[in-house]
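step 3/5: co-fold with oxa(dethia)-CoA
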Amino acid sequence: MSFPPSQHVRVAGVGAYLPERVVTNEELSASLDTSHEWILSHTGIHQRHLAAPGESASSMGLLAARRALEDAHLLPGDLAMVIVTTSTADYASYPSTAAIIQGNLGAVNAGAFDLNAACAGFAYGVAMGKCYCQAQGRPVLVVASEVNSRILDWHDRGTCVLFGDGAGAVVLAPSSRPGMLHEVLGADGTGAGYLVREAGLRTPEDILRPPGFVRMDGRAVFQFAVRAMENVIRRLLSETGHGLEDIQHFIPHQANGRILDAVARNMGLAPERFFRNIQHVANTSSASIPIALAELRRQGALKQGDLILTVAFGAGLVYGGSLLRWEAEG
Ligand code: UT7
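step 4/5: write tokens
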């Protein structure tokens, strides 16, 4: 069967999965030199979900993927591609987490690959997914799944309190009306050293080292994040001829409530215009935007024709975002 290329692409389905176990700030304070007050006042986080020993990026991503397909009223066999964004893949090199999800899902007509753009992975994933969906005229699944708890140093209070685990997914489908309106992606690799997971194969000896943890210059990342998010929002709006007032839902990467406050202040926006669920999920890296989108969808907050602006930044340093129109029907 051949499929004509599609001019337009929409988000046809959304799903998310959060692990059952919830860890509060108070619980962390019992074994770490920190406090609920410090974590809340510096980040806005109350609690995070942490994966069970038997869970992984592929198992959580599979559950989110099934929910997104159900929401889209599509079957695994309809998919042309499975893209997984993760910094915490099941295997360090291969097989890709996407291939594992594709197999477990039974997406027998789909290709599969992983994409790593750290916390901005979802922005990159949907931009790539849109292109393939357009070219093939068939749906594409983008899954963002992160088991951050496995790469954190639980003795480092500067990083371990910030993150949580979880997965989110969207199905992108050909559409008669424009849903995915515009994407912006960018990078500043000169800041690569500010946020690093100390594991890899830069030298032959590295294979003998234990898998490393996340290390971060929090202040430098904070300053970059505020600049990058403002830049992405302004570009998405100016390149599509929209104004701040046209947007019904701003869905930013949930890294730190204070970053969102600073971006809002710089742009003259009320802070509550940015959707926030960081208080109960913390920073779930690339999964944060689809988890937020699924939460809004579950609440019935996404209405036909709503404009949604997503914006993210992450290690690399990289950044990106997209402007969507919520099209409930293709
Ligand atoms: O998606 C990727 C993302 N990463 C980020 O978005 C991180 C961006 N950066 C941040 O969110 C903030 O920089 C942090 C929340 C990480 C830190 O906040 P800060 O206001 O920049 O604090 P700081 O690193 O300058 O540390 C201030 C103090 C230090 O103590 P001293 O040296 O002043 O005595 C830290 O040791 O706070 C201390 N501190 C803590 N105290 C209690 C750092 N972490 C903690 C903690 N509990 N968990």
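step 5/5: annotate
The pocket of oxa(dethia)-CoA is lined by residues 34, 38-39, 42-43, 119, 157-158, 161, 216, 218-219, 221-222, 225, 255-256, 283, 314 (CB under 6 Å).
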